[in-house]
Amino acid sequence: MKYGIRRPTVLLALAALAMQLPACGSGSGSPPATELPEFEQAEVARVDPGSALPTSWRDGIFMEIFVRAYQDSDGDGIGDLKGLTSRLDYLERLGVTGIWLMPIHPSQDGDHGYAVKDYRAIAPEYGSMDDFRNLLDQAHRRGIGVIVDYVINHSAAEHPAFVQSSSDNANAYRDWYVWSDRAPNSWTIYGSNPWHWSPTGYYFGGFWNQMPDFNLKNPHVLAWHQDNLRHWLNLGVDGFRFDAVGNLVENSAQAWENQDENHVILKSIQDLVARYQSRFMVCEAPSQPVRYAQPDSCGSAFAFGYQYDLAAAVRGQASAISRLASFWQDAPSGLTGFASNHDGFAGQRLADQLNADPRLLRLAAASYLLQSRRPFIYYGEEIGMQGASGLVGDPRLRTPMSWSPDRIHAGFSSSRPFRSLAANSVSANVELEEADPGSLLNFYRSVIAIRRSLPALQTGRYLNPRASGSTLSFQRELDRQRVVVLFNYGGSEALLEVDGLPPETVLQQHWPAHALHTSTSSGSLALRLDAQSFAVLSVTIGTE
Ligand SMILES: [Ca+2]
Ligand SMILES: [Ca+2]
């Protein structure tokens, strides 16, 4: 097996660091560092700058942000890091404690960023490394952690490692990617043949011929990724979102997804990240989220599947409400909830799925924000932002944030935005909703504030789920706090009955604002809920 050239092991670098000596030169058999291509230069030892955040930041509310679409600061029509930094006050006021940035590295696609050309740099259109350091600093001052997208499965075809790898079949980096001399037969991934022709052989790229898959069976490739990860952790990044982890290792045309090797790789990365203070990582594994959320794998994964039931449940579909009730009962604690994201396969923007119906949007938000662990809001969801009219596919979901009613710029930029605005930017935007106490934005703030005020809603055990017709109730418990959450998704008033409460329960009502008529007796509760409404009540257990 040919592997890429590596400098001496990380252990040597660590030893040099311990001796307060520069990690100079190379061991026997390795060329001097100066002979290595730039992308492979420095191995990176762990130097944890610590964390300014409370450990609880990981149990709060996250937001997924597409930097390109969030806020432009310099008038080129493209969102950037300075623009995002200028909106941190808005995020803090919303109650967000963590933000996930879609890829911020130089990319070949020049859009979503998942075709990475340089894993240790910032995309020039997004700003400088100083801009990024400032973003981290300003976010941390507001109690907000920053996790960044890291694409371990593939690089851009223009990445210098692939340029080398594809140059000839004896190149030192040949085995950094997956090659075959002949065209492999019978492979189909997502409806396409993942093997692509080049003058020097066929290479594997499961998602796009311009995104070749790394050979993650090559330990040098994994070690190099781990150096890249330490590079960002040493800078003070609070963690990562890992893309497409179901696709890391392929073994055959029949065994190309969710292979055992994936979990071994992710556990090694989880261990790496856990050696830093208060960091967090989460994985995208749409076909097996529960498996990847286990401690021996990624440890945390998005709850793909839940979001489909969420949209159906709030419309009153009894079978979806039933699945919503049971979903979190046996879920691993690393499973994280969301309503929609940047990928069309996960569904349209929530406001499009629910036809911008304000009652349904409120019910959906309250459901997943109160029910799930570490919920991730997709940017703009909190103002009811729709996709762009006239666009299809993923770009439709990735439009500039609607900050103001301005028909041309939406407060996103002083010049023409890089992409069409949201279809409803004139009516649904931050400026208008800030001024309206009854807006969706202020509703999100209220629900998030309730969640933050009741620790059981953040990390508490999920108990006693009950679905009945168009209604759902569940309880969450932490220490001596028990919270009861009840939903009526139906079109008419409903009577809900809850049991399993502590005896002699005295309930405190957190939502709605008007007093509900409840009756309690020996551990059970009955109350009437208006059509399409919900309630949050809490009990302190064992007060004497
Ligand atoms: Ca810009
Ligand atoms: Ca792969």
Detailed description of the structure:
The chain is 25% helix and 17% strand. With 544 residues, it is α/β, with parallel strands linked by helices. A six-stranded parallel sheet has the order 8-7-3-2-1-11, with helices on one face. Strands 12-13-14-19-16 form a five-stranded antiparallel sheet. The chain is globular. The relative contact order is 0.09. Residues 1-33 have low confidence and may be disordered. Bound molecules: calcium ion (CA) (2 copies). One calcium ion (CA) binds at residues 153, 206, 213, 247-248, 250.
Give a short synopsis of this structure.
This protein is an alpha/beta fold. It has helices at 10-18, 81-86, 88-94, 129-141, 160-165, 219-235, 260-274, 289-292, 306-313, 318-327, 350-353, 358-371, 430-434, 440-453, 456-459; strands at residues 61-65, 96-101, 145-150, 179-180, 195-198, 201-204, 239-242, 280-283, 301-302, 335-336, 376-378, 461-468, 471-478, 481-488, 494-498, 508-511, 518-521, 524-529, 533-540.
